[in-house]
Amino acid sequence: VLFWLARHWVAKLLMGLGLAEGTASLIAKLMPIVTVLGSALLVSLMGWEADLRVVGALPGGLPALQVPTIDFSIVTKLWLPALAISLIGFVESVSIAQAFANKNRQRINTNAELRGLGAANIASALSGAFPVTGGFSRTAVNAEAGARSPLSGIFAAVLIALLLVFATGLFHALPMAVLAAPIIIAATGLVDIKSLIHNWHYDRAEGMAQAGTALGVLLAGVEVGIAIGIALSLATLVWRASRPHIAIVGRVPDTEHFRNVNRYQVETRGEILILRVDENLFFGNAESVEKFILRAIEAQPEAHHLVLVMSSVSSVDATAMQMLDMLNERLIDEGMKLHLAEVKGPVLGQLEN
């Protein structure tokens, strides 16, 4: 309750009593610290340590830096888990950074994030620490406290170092529930139901990916949720690419523009069938593209020329190339000619070869 009040009402209440906005905001931000220390003091004075789950004894001092011994027999066993940890850690960090960047109308540099995580993990290995990532709960609490730049992380590191050296005893009686409270309060502000509803109505596949990620986080943790989100997003990408949009097009009267016959008033000629393929051609959609073309030819038996408009095609893989080659031979046998229009330079180079 105190954390919630500090977040929503304390600053407004103090400003209503006549305090300056900066002072009122500072007091509101200091309230969580006072609450944490006050709860530890209260538990210690009242002797509630036996009845509550508390932090307990913390080892004092800073870790010693040393170069770890490299055992290649262990490396062969650990490289695959290490790869998974690094991948999930990077995706989790970037996802969290992107969420806060979007919230604050900022942009992130994913390459800089990767370099920072790599340097931090190398330093972590020299001190016997856990793998380092950008944490959801820590980031949420940091932002809730008013952090505006990476300098907040440096201040946090210095304060933690000082506490480890001089003041670990202060947190012996700190209840775990009190540690959970600021994380819960900060995290609730990141729950975006409106975004899920909007995405669900706008794009059902994107909505399913977002819902699956959220359920995975709730039921199995952040790592599993992110893995589910990645899998669903990749599956959606492949599913869409395997079912490309193909339009029969005609010429807009008195222009040189060609548009979808189902959306515009256009002119067509029976001996010419013009199709626009709005996707790259690859093994995943070659069959569906060929089926669409053959059905269109059957529906327009008087056609002698097939024109494929390739303005949206940026690549053609070997399987799709084989499909086009076989289609061309089939059309020749049926007395038709295949033409390609608006072919991009890189694709033209491939086809000329």
Structure write-up:
The protein starts with a helix and ends with a helix. It is of the alpha/beta class and 353 residues long. The protein has 14 helices and five strands. Helix 1 (2-8) packs antiparallel against helix 3. It has a five-stranded mixed β-sheet with strand order 2-1-3-4-5. It has helices at residues 2-8, 10-16, 21-46, 72-103, 110-125, 136-144, 151-166, 176-188, 193-202, 204-220, 222-242, 286-299, 318-333, 345-352, and strands at 246-251, 258-260, 272-277, 305-309, 337-341. The mean pLDDT is 88.
Would you kindly provide a brief summary of this structure?
The chain has about 350 residues and is an alpha/beta fold.
Name a few traits of the molecule:
5-stranded mixed beta sheet; elongated; alpha/beta; 353 residues
Described by the principal axes of the CA atoms, the overall outline is elongated
Residue windows where pLDDT falls under 50 for at least 5 positions: none
Going across the major beta sheet, what is the strand order? 2-1-3-4-5
Percent of residues in β-strands: 5-15%
Number of strands: 5
Rg over alpha carbons: 30 Å
Q: What is the strand and helix layout of this fold?
A:
Elements: H1 2-8, H2 10-16, H3 21-46, H4 72-103, H5 110-125, H6 136-144, H7 151-166, H8 176-188, H9 193-202, H10 204-220, H11 222-242, E1 246-251, E2 258-260, E3 272-277, H12 286-299, E4 305-309, H13 318-333, E5 337-341, H14 345-352
Parallel strand pairs: 3-4, 4-5
Antiparallel strand pairs: 1-2, 1-3
Helix pairs in contact: 1-3, 2-3, 4-11, 6-8, 9-10, 10-11
